[in-house]
């Protein structure tokens, strides 16, 4: 699905500040849902994998710490996280408000972490489940998140930090950058 079409499929509620809220986004192969407490145990299982920890520059956490990180991300106005659902794995119909943990395969988030430029967001994507990789989900979800960030947060510039050895991520972002060169910055880690 093109980014514009994904944006058109977005639904959600404002939280009063016009920013974080219960946003959902429905794409061709993926659905983005808010990161809910119900998602934390599976997310924590993913983050025991040394390869995922390295690829995402993360530290291993206890389950209690993961719940605390979830709470802080939920409250942080500068961070927006979605859990990625693989539509093929959703049991029955997709229902807004249902965490659909059976279909969760990764996450995507933006972080407005440059105090000098709040229209710049660092973007991170993880398709944790091997069975859902290589199906175009990473690319679709990254475009959906960028579209969301432009529309809801007024983001003008995206930054992706990717290690030299992460061939899959480099390929994904280079492909996107070749389409959207002016708004993507690359940094080496
Ligand atoms: C990087 C990642 C998000 C890619 O997700 P994905 O859903 O498998 O990617 P897609 O299927 O959308 O593929 C996007 C492009 O990358 C390429 N690609 C994907 N995996 C690849 C691999 N292992 N090696 C080489 N190219 C790869 C695809 O071929 C595709 O390009 P194409 O359309 O020209 O063929 C996923 O591998 C991942 O989550 N890795 C671990 C976490 C991570 O590294 N996150 C990024 C941190 S910066």
UniProtKB/TrEMBL annotation:
<dbReference type="GO" id="GO:0008080">
    <property type="term" value="F:N-acetyltransferase activity"/>
</dbReference>
<feature type="domain" description="N-acetyltransferase">
    <location>
        <begin position="29"/>
        <end position="176"/>
    </location>
</feature>
<dbReference type="Pfam" id="PF13302">
    <property type="entry name" value="Acetyltransf_3"/>
</dbReference>
<comment type="similarity">
    <text>Belongs to the acetyltransferase family. GNAT subfamily.</text>
</comment>
<dbReference type="InterPro" id="IPR016181">
    <property type="entry name" value="Acyl_CoA_acyltransferase"/>
</dbReference>
<protein>
    <recommendedName>
        <fullName>N-acetyltransferase domain-containing protein</fullName>
    </recommendedName>
</protein>
<keyword id="KW-0012">Acyltransferase</keyword>
<dbReference type="InterPro" id="IPR000182">
    <property type="entry name" value="GNAT_dom"/>
</dbReference>
<keyword id="KW-0808">Transferase</keyword>
<dbReference type="InterPro" id="IPR039135">
    <property type="entry name" value="NAT9-like"/>
</dbReference>
């Amino acid at each position: 699905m093109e980014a514009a079409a994904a944006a058109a499929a977005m639904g959600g509620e404002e939280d009063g500040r016009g920013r974080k809220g219960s946003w959902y986004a429905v794409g061709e192969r993926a659905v983005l849902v808010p990161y809910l407490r119900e998602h934390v145990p599976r997310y924590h299982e993913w983050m025991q994998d040394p390869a995922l920890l390295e690829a995402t520059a993360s530290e291993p956490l206890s389950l209690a710490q993961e719940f605390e990180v979830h709470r802080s991300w939920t409250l942080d106005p500068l961070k927006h996280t979605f859990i990625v659902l693989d539509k093929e794995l959703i049991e029955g119909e997709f229902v807004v408000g249902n965490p659909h943990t059976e279909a969760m395969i990764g996450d995507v988030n933006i972080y407005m972490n440059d105090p000098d430029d709040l229209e710049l967001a660092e973007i991170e994507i993880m398709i944790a489940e091997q069975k859902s990789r290589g199906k175009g989900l990473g690319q679709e979800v990254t475009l959906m998140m960028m579209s969301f960030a432009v529309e809801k947060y007024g983001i003008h510039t995206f930054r992706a930090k990717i290690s030299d050895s992460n061939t899959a991520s480099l390929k994904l972002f280079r492909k996107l950058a070749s389409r959207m060169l002016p708004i993507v910055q690359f940094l080496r880690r």
